[in-house]
C-alpha cells in the first residue's frame, strides 16, 4: 500500500493510474485528430463517455479502480450513461471498454454481496437486472473492447454486447467462474452463454467455472476477435463501422427478434428473480464461501 494525500492507495491502483496518464496523452492525440474541437467528454465519476458525434459513436470507459468491480454505484452510473446515449439520436453505437490497465471488470462487487441486509441485496440485484436489460436490448450497436480480465459479471457485460474484441494477453481471461466461488450464475447469464457459445460449451463452462485465455475464448466463440492489446480499441471501432453500415431499423428489429425472448424471461419474472437471489445469497454457507474468497483475494494482493 502507498500513502497518498492521507488515503491508503493500493500500489496496484497507482500502477494502473499509468493508464490514466496514457489516457491523458490519448486525449491530446484525439484533440489533434479533431475529436477535441467542440466535442466534450461527459459521464460520471466511474463512467467516462468519449463521444464522437461525427461518427455517431461513443466510447464508454469503466473507471472504477482498482478492478471495475460492479458496485451499486458503478451499475447505477452505467445505466444512466447508457440511457442517455440510447435516447440521443446523435449516437448509433457504443464501444464499451475499461479505463484501467489489465482489468476490464472483475464482475460483481463481492463487498456488495457480503454482510449486507436483505434490502441491500434486493436493491443491488435490481440494479444489475436493470443494467443487463438495458445493454442487452439497446438499439445501439454495442461492441465490447475487452482490454483486461473479465470474469463472471464482467463476462456477462461483454456477452450483452453485439460484438467482442479481446486483447491477446495471458491475463485477459474471460468466462463464467461463479461455481469456483461456490455460487451460481443467474439463469439469464446462463441464457446469454447458451445463445453465444451453444448449449454444450455453455454447460461445461458454467459447471466448471472456466476462465478462458484469449485463444480458447475465440475458439469456443465467447469472443469474436483476439488482437494485440494496443489494437483492441481500433479493432472495435473498425468492427463498429461494419455494423453501422447496416440500416438501423433493419438491424434493430433483427436484434430485438433474436434477443427479446431471452430478455422477456427475466423481464416477466424480475421480482421472483430478486427474491431467489436474496434468499440464495443470505444463506450462511454462501456468505461464508464469499467471505473466504474475498479474503483470499485480499491476501493475494
Ligand atoms: C438461485 C440463483 C438465483 C440467483 C443467482 C444467485 C447467485 C448469483 C450470485 C452472484 C453472481 C456473481 C457473479 C460475479 O460476478 S461474482 C465475482 C466474480 N469475480 C471474480 O472472481 C474476480 C475476482 N478478482 C480477480 O480475479 C482479480 O482481482 C482480477 C483478475 C480481476 C484482477 O487481478 P489483480 O491482480 O489486478 O487485482 P487483485 O489484487 O486481485 O485485486 C485488487 C483489489 O480488488 C479487490 N477485488 C478484486 N475483485 C473483486 C470483486 N469482484 N469484488 C470486490 N473486490 C474485488 C481485491 O480484493 C483487491 O482488494 P485490496 O486492494 O486487496 O483491498
Automatic annotation (TrEMBL):
<comment type="pathway">
    <text>Lipid metabolism; fatty acid beta-oxidation.</text>
</comment>
<dbReference type="GO" id="GO:0004165">
    <property type="term" value="F:delta(3)-delta(2)-enoyl-CoA isomerase activity"/>
</dbReference>
<protein>
    <recommendedName>
        <fullName>Enoyl-CoA delta isomerase 1, mitochondrial</fullName>
        <ecNumber>5.3.3.8</ecNumber>
    </recommendedName>
</protein>
<dbReference type="InterPro" id="IPR001753">
    <property type="entry name" value="Enoyl-CoA_hydra/iso"/>
</dbReference>
<keyword id="KW-0443">Lipid metabolism</keyword>
<keyword id="KW-0007">Acetylation</keyword>
<dbReference type="GO" id="GO:0006635">
    <property type="term" value="P:fatty acid beta-oxidation"/>
</dbReference>
<dbReference type="Pfam" id="PF00378">
    <property type="entry name" value="ECH_1"/>
</dbReference>
<keyword id="KW-0809">Transit peptide</keyword>
<dbReference type="InterPro" id="IPR029045">
    <property type="entry name" value="ClpP/crotonase-like_dom_sf"/>
</dbReference>
<comment type="similarity">
    <text>Belongs to the enoyl-CoA hydratase/isomerase family.</text>
</comment>
<keyword id="KW-0276">Fatty acid metabolism</keyword>
<comment type="function">
    <text>Key enzyme of fatty acid beta-oxidation. Able to isomerize both 3-cis (3Z) and 3-trans (3E) double bonds into the 2-trans (2E) form in a range of enoyl-CoA species, with a preference for (3Z)-enoyl-CoAs over (3E)-enoyl-CoAs. The catalytic efficiency of this enzyme is not affected by the fatty acyl chain length.</text>
</comment>
<comment type="subunit">
    <text>Homotrimer.</text>
</comment>
<keyword id="KW-0413">Isomerase</keyword>
<keyword id="KW-0496">Mitochondrion</keyword>
<dbReference type="GO" id="GO:0005759">
    <property type="term" value="C:mitochondrial matrix"/>
</dbReference>
<dbReference type="InterPro" id="IPR018376">
    <property type="entry name" value="Enoyl-CoA_hyd/isom_CS"/>
</dbReference>
Amino acid at each position: 500500500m502507498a500513502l497518498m494525500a492521507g488515503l491508503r492507495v493500493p500500489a496496484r491502483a497507482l500502477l494502473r493510474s499509468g493508464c490514466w496518464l496514457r489516457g491523458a496523452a490519448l486525449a491530446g492525440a484525439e484533440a489533434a485528430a479533431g475529436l477535441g474541437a467542440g466535442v466534450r467528454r461527459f459521464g460520471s465519476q466511474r463512467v467516462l463517455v468519449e463521444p464522437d458525434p461525427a461518427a455517431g459513436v461513443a466510447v464508454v470507459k469503466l473507471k472504477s479502480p482498482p478492478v471495475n468491480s460492479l458496485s451499486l454505484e458503478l451499475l447505477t452510473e452505467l445505466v444512466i450513461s447508457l440511457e442517455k446515449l440510447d435516447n440521443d439520436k446523435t449516437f448509433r453505437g457504443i464501444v464499451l471498454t475499461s479505463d484501467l490497465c489489465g482489468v476490464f471488470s472483475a464482475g460483481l462487487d463481492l463487498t456488495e454481496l457480503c454482510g449486507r441486509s436483505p434490502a441491500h441485496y434486493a436493491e443491488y440485484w435490481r440494479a444489475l437486472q436493470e443494467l443487463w436489460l438495458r445493454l442487452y436490448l439497446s438499439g445501439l450497436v454495442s461492441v465490447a473492447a475487452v482490454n483486461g480480465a473479465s470474469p463472471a459479471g464482467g463476462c456477462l457485460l461483454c456477452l450483452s454486447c453485439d460484438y467482442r474484441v479481446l486483447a491477446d494477453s495471458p491475463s485477459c481471461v474471460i468466462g463464467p467462474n461463479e461455481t469456483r466461488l461456490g455460487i451460481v450464475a443467474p439463469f439469464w447469464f446462463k441464457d446469454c452463454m447458451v445463445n453465444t457459445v451453444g448449449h454444450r460449451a455453455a454447460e461445461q463452462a458454467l459447471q466448471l467455472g472456466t476462465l478462458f485465455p484469449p485463444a480458447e475464448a475465440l475458439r469456443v466463440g465467447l469472443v469474436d476477435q483476439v488482437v494485440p492489446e494496443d489494437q483492441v480499441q481500433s479493432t472495435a471501432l473498425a468492427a463498429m463501422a461494419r455494423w453501422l453500415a447496416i440500416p438501423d431499423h433493419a438491424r434493430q428489429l433483427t436484434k430485438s427478434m433474436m434477443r427479446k425472448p431471452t430478455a422477456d424471461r427475466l423481464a416477466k419474472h424480475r421480482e421472483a428473480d430478486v427474491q431467489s437471489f436474496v434468499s440464495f445469497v443470505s444463506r450462511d454457507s454462501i456468505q461464508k464461501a464469499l467471505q473466504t474468497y474475498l479474503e483470499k483475494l485480499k491476501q493475494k494482493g
